[in-house]
Write a structure and sequence with these properties.
homodimer, alpha/beta, 43% helix, globular
Chain lengths: 441, 441
């Protein structure tokens, strides 16, 4: 048997086992799932030294491979990060069970009652990059929701990821009601590509990574993919923000959105300024930009006010810089800002800074993005900040789940109909019985 | 310019116009949308004679093309069907607006409030076959939800479909607040294939047609596809259905599920019998099968009881016959039935016939299908019967929308965050402000 054939057989077994585990974990009930989560949190605390020692191996390799500062920081597991992970798991225990919620109940007829009830989704395939703390977050969301998961972590974090998988084995031993195969770790890119060919076993793919990764996965599979292809976020500053106080506030939010974590997907890429306040805003902003190392690419009107900045090209309006570059465009009014955002944006997170409540509502209703903010930094778009306990990712899709996705992205619903022997033939034709369709909830 | 280039340019314009129309219709509000629906219902009543005359042209062509009885019936528009369509639209008017619902509300901090609110989804691409009454149903669901739609109907119904599009023009004239381009009809298969290449304009594809159609569309596009690939539905008869009364009821439901409309996706394909009641059930069922023209393909145990039936092969357990063929398998217990259904089924609709409440609940929880029924025919799985007013289709997907899909499959949500100038930098680091995450709903 060739190596590839062997690998495919191994993968098929992994996926089949994951599906079987899903059927088992899906019906566990809230109490057991929470007990397992508590145990997982304890195991992380008990094995913190080991986790950090394994992580140290990854860090050493990364230094040999000359990884840079921010990447090293993302890769590093320390006491603070582990404490946050454990806290996140305990927060998750407190949240209500996302499965088993009765979403609707209708009496179709006497003795024929329809229930719509939330249920776990199935086998989730998650592909993530170098942050090893993603792994326990994802594992705990999957446990809480009653799903099964097949993971592929970044090569840079392989020792850390393997250490977390060892904890899963210990968890399964301490909680024997868990299906043994509810979580597994793939170890090659080839296995990920193969996984895309199995819609019969894998119900949802969540790629957490580059635009390229997400887009190539979407093109290669029939399995639904939840991810965000780009994070081109905007702030529009309305004409009524010209007072010194409002201006200071606007500057603070713009700097925060651009500077606080420039490589995040919810960081600011394009600033839109109402022409009535463009001059006063830009004159002040020039100092903030200089102080924070922001490199401005401006439209013609921006350049007329700040002659030293770079000219923005058409391509800039649809660029995710991921660094301290900021494109700026002066617009005639709110509608032009909304039009620009809907056309060039990535439907991720966009904000208006304004006082006029009518302008604010028009913006929030008309901008077609997962997150629309008024007078707040775009950087708030995040599962933890939204209070979801953790997030499996941020979605810019228009179906299933949108924006920061926590537990609810991992459930769907089924319809349960309880009857007393009814046939459809009784409800059609000449002497058809009528339906009652009486809401019971 | 080549003809193809021209066609592609035309399609791009259609899709761009649809997107622009979506932005306009999305913010109309319930009152105007309902007024438009009422007007549409009136227009259908006023133009019923014209609609039926145009439909007559399709029927004549179909007779020339030697279409068969059931296909002709599906194609035919008569007063009864139009009355049902009009009634469906008026039922839809009475339903609450699916958009603008506040789904969750959280105080992240003082003066920083997050709202999760339902919104229309965008541009929906719908491909459907010969039933012309699908068209007004889909149009009214799209109107009610505030979306835009690009339709492709079956060639057999082209006069009828064009007549409905003429009504849309009249509707737009009477309701000038509607965006003119909210609905358009594609006229070639090539245009449908091209549409799959535009995820920037089309947010969801709903193919209503053959397995092949749905599957080939899924493989060819990054756009989310909502549809069902197969309808392999099961009924499992539990061991406690052996009394004469229970047996009579079970026979009635099995015959209904198989015979009432054999080509429907929710019709029965495989019957699973607990071995304790197999003999008594099959001896009675043989007469019903003969009377109704049901052709049985049985497992070995079935053949031991009914020696005249055909043997079932492995392929039968995953076949959607769409006719009066029925495969039958005798199983040792409920778990075997559940295992068979989850393995061979299409996760569409499966039913248990039983008395024991524990067995019923175990089946409803463990079978991983969109619709799980107890003591009712699988044929109840339908948007009208469930009380949704109309349906855009039935989904066997595990994401977004599952089972019969009405209005709610055409909406998603966005997060609105209203602040007072907050920056994320205030909530991180040493002197971080804590989040409050206080539910307001």
């Amino acid at each position: 048997m060739s190596q590839l054939t062997q690998e495919i057989e191994q993968l098929e077994k992994t996926l089949k086992d994951a599906k079987a585990a899903f059927y088992q974990n899906a019906v566990l009930g809230a109490e057991k799932k929470n007990e397992a989560l508590e145990t997982f949190a304890l195991l992380i605390e008990e094995n913190a030294a080991h986790l950090m020692a394994e992580n140290q191996k990854d860090l050493e390799q990364a230094r040999q491979d000359q990884l840079q500062g921010q990447l090293l920081n993302r890769l590093k597991l320390d006491n603070a990060k582990l404490a946050q992970v454990v806290q996140g798991i305990r927060d998750l225990v407190k949240l209500p069970d996302p499965a088993g919620k009765i979403l609707a109940k209708t009496k179709l007829d006497d003795g024929l009652v329809l229930e719509k009830i939330s249920v776990p989704l199935g086998v989730i395939g998650i592909i993530f990059e170098s942050r090893p703390d993603v792994m326990p977050q994802v594992l705990s969301l999957v446990l809480k929701s009653g799903n099964a998961v097949v993971l592929k972590g970044g090569r840079e974090a392989r020792h850390s990821n393997a250490a977390f998988m060892d904890l899963v084995k210990k968890l399964n031993a301490r909680c024997p009601y868990l299906a043994n195969t509810w979580a597994s770790l793939l170890d090659s890119r080839e296995a990920v590509h193969q996984m895309l060919n199995y819609p019969e076993y894998v119900d949802l793919i969540i790629p957490r990574g580059s635009n390229q990764l997400v887009s190539s996965i979407m093109a290669a599979t029939k399995i639904p993919v939840m991810g965000h292809a780009d994070g081109i976020c905007h702030i529009y500053v309305h004409q009524d923000m010209g007072s010194p106080e409002a201006l200071a506030q606007a500057l603070k939010m713009v700097v925060d959105a651009k500077v606080q974590y420039p490589s995040a997907c919810n960081a600011l890429e394009t600033l839109l300024l109402h022409e009535a306040i463009a001059k006063v805003f830009l004159q002040d902003f020039a100092k903030d930009a200089k102080k924070n190392g922001i490199m401005i690419k401006g439209c013609e009107k921006t350049m007329a006010i700040l002659p030293d900045c770079q000219p923005a090209s058409e391509a800039d309006w649809s660029s995710e810089y991921g660094d301290l570059t900021l494109s700026i465009k002066v617009v005639p009014d709110l509608d032009a800002a909304v039009g620009h955002i809907n056309h060039y944006g990535s439907h991720h997170t966009d904000a208006i800074l304004a006082k006029d409540p009518e302008a604010i509502e028009r913006f929030l209703n008309s901008v077609d993005s997962a997150c629309v903010f008024a007078n707040a930094s775009t950087r708030f778009a995040d599962g933890f900040r939204f209070g979801f306990g953790a997030e499996v990712g941020i979605s810019t899709a228009k179906t299933h789940a949108r924006g920061p996705v926590g537990l609810e992205g991992l459930v769907i619903y089924k319809y349960k109909l309880r009857g007393q022997g009814q046939a459809v033939a009784d409800y059609v034709g000449e002497n058809a019985k009528p339906f009652r369709h009486e809401p019971l909830l």
